């Protein structure tokens, strides 16, 4: 996530925290953050006295999350594991999937299975909160190539290819420092349009309440590169 280091600022984390808290169900106590990365949101929520479980496949991130929780004297249950296979024998008042954490798996089936797992972890009447890229706005400003220089002097160049048949975006990334190549790789993501997430989550019992722009405002998301989808689990 080093190319994102200057994006995930304290200001942004706090803004996300405010949006999440504003959209939690009433009397919310238990929250699953899946995947939780290095705990940037879980630890902030735990400081507000919510009971957090955070899961991530990356051991290194979980170690950082745990250390940060200890420093803050928070008690968070951090788990290393694959969301697709790990069993958490509990349902939660709210489940979070933040910072484009869907669409990275190898197949359409696995991507949908992950969304199904998220829906299944929500208690009836609880909330599922998804925050991800908004393909509508992305395509309005589509750039096949772009560059970015971070505050610590790293230069990233990006080259994008969108496959219309699979709705996947491949981004080739090259990182250079003082003109020397430091990293080169690619990430591939299945981009979900809002109506697709609405449909998939509905299939697994979560009904859409609101679609918000990146600042958490209700209204037109046409120009908002990110979006929040707030679902409530049916009571049945
Ligand atoms: C874009 S990061 C977002 C992390 C966190 N939600 C945040 O906002 O900082 C995506 C995370 O998904 C984790 N991940 C990817 N596949 C996973 C899986 N199958 N099970 C659990 N975690 C996974 C990665 O290790 C990474 O930390």
Let me know the largest β-sheet.
Answer: 7 strands, mixed
**Structural domains: how many:** 2
The span between the termini is: 40 Å
Number of helices: 6
Give, in spatial order, the strands making up the sheet with the most strands. Answer: 3-2-1-4-5-11-10
**Overall pLDDT score:** 95
Give the second-level CATH assignment, the architecture of the largest domain. Answer: 3-Layer(aba) Sandwich
Shape: globular
Break the fold down into its secondary structure elements and pairings.
Elements: H1 10-23, E1 30-33, H2 42-47, E2 51-56, H3 59-71, E3 76-80, E4 92-97, H4 108-120, E5 122-133, H5 135-140, E6 145-149, E7 155-163, E8 168-177, E9 180-190, H6 194-203, E10 206-213, E11 226-233
Parallel strand pairs: 1-2, 1-4, 2-3, 4-5
Antiparallel strand pairs: 5-11, 6-7, 7-8, 8-9, 10-11
The structure holds S-adenosylmethionine.
S-adenosylmethionine (SAM) is lined by residues 35-37, 40-41, 55-58, 61, 82-84, 98-101, 104.
């Amino acid at each position: 996530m080093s190319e994102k280091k200057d994006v995930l600022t304290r200001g942004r984390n706090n803004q996300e925290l405010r949006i999440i808290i504003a959209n939690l169900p009433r009397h919310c106590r238990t929250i699953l953050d899946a995947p939780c990365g290095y705990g940037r949101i879980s630890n902030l929520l735990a400081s507000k006295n919510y009971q957090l479980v955070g899961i991530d496949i990356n051991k290194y991130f979980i170690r950082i999350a745990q250390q940060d929780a200890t420093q803050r004297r928070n008690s968070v249950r951090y788990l290393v594991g694959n969301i697709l296979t790990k069993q958490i024998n509990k349902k939660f008042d709210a489940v979070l999937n933040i910072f484009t954490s869907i669409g990275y798996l190898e197949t359409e089936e696995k991507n949908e299975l992950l969304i199904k797992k998220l829906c299944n972890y929500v208690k009836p009447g609880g909330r599922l909160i998804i925050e991800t890229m908004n393909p509508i706005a992305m395509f309005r400003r589509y750039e096949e190539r772009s560059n970015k220089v971070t505050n610590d002097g790293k230069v990233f160049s990006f080259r994008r290819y969108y496959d219309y048949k699979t709705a996947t975006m491949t981004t080739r990334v090259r990182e250079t420092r003082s003109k020397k190549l430091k990293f080169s790789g690619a990430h591939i993501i299945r981009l979900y349009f809002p109506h697709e997430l609405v449909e998939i989550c509905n299939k697994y019992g979560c009904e859409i309440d609101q679609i918000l722009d990146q600042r958490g405002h209700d209204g037109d998301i046409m120009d908002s590169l990110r979006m929040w989808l707030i679902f409530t689990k049916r009571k049945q």
